[in-house]
Amino acid sequence: MSLARPAALLCVPLLALGVSACAGTTSSNDYKGENHAVAAAIANLQTEATAGEAQKICSDVLASTVTARLDSQPGGCKRALKDQLSQVDTPTLTVQEVKPLGATSASAEVKSTYAGNSKVTTITLVKENGAWKISSLG
After folding, report:
1. Total structural domains in the chain?
2. Inside any domain, residue 1
3. 8-55-110-27 Cα dihedral, nearest 10 degrees
4. Which domain holds residue 26?
5. Per the confidence metrics, is the pTM higher than 0.70?
6. Residue 32: which CATH number?
7. Which terminus of the chain faces fewer neighbouring Cβ atoms within 10 Å, N or C?
8. Nearest one of 122, 126, 116 to 137, comparing CA atoms
9. 93 contacts 110 by C-beta, under 8 angstroms
């Protein structure tokens, strides 16, 4: 898959995280307040991906700017994610650190482990209508 493809705006990073419809876990219990809410948004990505809920990821988990970019492509956000979710397996995800970047933005370092291999990825989030949403992965 080429990074130049428009759907790659989100889908290639999902592949890097290994998000799909197989079992996996994400821990958000070690955080309090807004940091917990940020970690919970990442846990929601894992939960919805595990369930194969592409539409819920598009509507509830992703920032509106990401959804708009994916919706501008043939088949829209749901189709782009559904295609990716069917192609990858899920690792265990662990939120290692949450960094507030202001009242409406944050980043999190997330460690994914799959088949004995680990990778740390930075996920950026924005607060939209009171909820933390993922604006970029990787």
Report:
1. 1
2. no
3. -170
4. 6-137
5. yes
6. 3.10.450.50
7. N
8. 122
9. yes
